[in-house]
Amino acid sequence: MYSVRLWVVRHAGAFERIYNMFEPVLVKLHPVWNKIGYQRAEKPMSKIEQACKGLLFDCKMCGQCALSSTGMSCSMNCPKNLRNGPCGGVRLNGNCEVYADRRCVWVEGWKGSQKMKNGDRIFAVQKPVDFSQQGSSSWLRVVRQISKNKEQTREKSQ
Amino acid sequence: MIFHDEPNAGDPFPHLPDHSSQGRLERVLRAGHFAVTSELAPPDSANPEDVYDRARVFDGYVDGMNATDGSGANCHMSSVGMCALLTRVGYSPVMQISCRDKNRIAIQGDVLGGAAMGVTNMLCLTGDGVQAGDHPEAKPVFDLDCMSLLETVRGMRDKHEFLSGRTITDAPKVFLGAASNPFAPPYDFRPHRMAKKIAAGAQFIQTNYCFDIPRFKEFMARSRDLGLLEKVFVLPGVGPMASARTATWIRNNVPGIHIPDEVINRLAGAKDQKKEGQQICIDLIQELREIEGVSGVHVMAYRQEEAVAEIIDRSGVLDGRVPWYPGRDEELLKERA
Ligand code: SF4
Fold it and tell me: Where is this region: Disordered (chain B) (predicted)?
């Protein structure tokens, strides 16, 4: 929802902290996901993710969440799908070039990033969107990646 | 001014070690000259002469011409098509690539095609939204954004790879540009955004119309603090406004263009508004030239293209230098032979 989305970005710092607590829990559950099978967990997990993030961020389920690099303002709501900051068309009042009655996703995101501990992630260049991930769970992807990295470092140290 | 290794018209320059391209624009900028580029409005026709006619009005005054890619989301001859025609006779076009109409497969194909035709400069843009143009019902693509587009083309050039990792046997040697709009909010993010573009591969920057000098100075000062000015050539955009009415219309209807009231009032108060618009443009060019980090100007004289020569001439920024045009060196080459 538009108004919820704006409210969340105004409290980007809090949501950053919440996610930072939530992520390790998901990672801890890696054995559970493994047991169920990541593929089988995918469907229910993406449903849950969509419900939560859809409500809070108007999440579009791109499957490669960048909220922590966009000031908690979902950049897939930018009609140009920009992942790296505002286009040159932002109106003088900070509204979007395309939707004159809506705030520019990135004007809000820039404000949000300044409220975050790791807000400077907004300065990193984001990769192009992988459209084949659309609809999949970003959370599971992150967990799988982190667990895989951990295993690899463990194997190396042995 | 003629480079010592000036090639025949249409041929590339010898490749210098610290240059990315074999093109003229990069040569001029790296040699420290104040460069002039201009916007070349594409015709709504399939006649090559229309392109050449439009290019000829700039002869002797510009170092590069931007072949726009459906700018304002209006349909015209393609940027690739125009570049093909222009390079054929030796001009140095800047091929604009917008992310609005093509996905990564089409874009990378165009980059190779353009480079094969002798395009040495490419400008990576996001593009205006389709709502701004004459086909608002079109499907907006925006598969890449300008940032990932820059990285993609740089990867093709430096790593000899498509985005997919597949190898390119002969890489496109291009000088990479991007746009910047210091005049749109959030102002304090704009220098950072330019920094990102540089990190993604931008070597030169052309800006939107610059009418607000204090705002631009502020932008350049912040960019200097971020250490960007040594890494990039900045060419602020300028252009004559035909009248106060046109300026007001543009301000209200074209995305991203900021024209302060003073400029509009100055136009409105003039007897000959068109002349005044050109004078304002000349004044701006002269002011911009003095700002640290400005390497040239990019002239956008929509529907007043024939005025560009006089504007550049009267601004004095070329210091007597005559940028290349077909036929410029004919006498000299005859003597050489
Ligand atoms: S104004 Fe903002 S939200 Fe709108 S298209 Fe540009 S970057 Fe996206």
Answer: 1-20
